[in-house]
Amino acid sequence: MNVGLITSYVIAGIILLAILSMNMSVSSNSNEITLSQITRERAASISDMMSNDIQKMGYNRKGTTDPILTVAEGNKIQFHSNIDNSPDNSVEIITWDLTNTDVSNSKNPNDRVLMRTVRDASGSLISQTPIKSGVTKLRINYYDKYGTARKDSLKTPLTSSEMANVKQLYISIELQSHEKIYQSSGNSGRYVTSVWEKRFSPPNLEF
Question: On the chain, which terminus has fewer CB atoms closer than 10 Å, C or N?
Answer without folding.
Answer: N
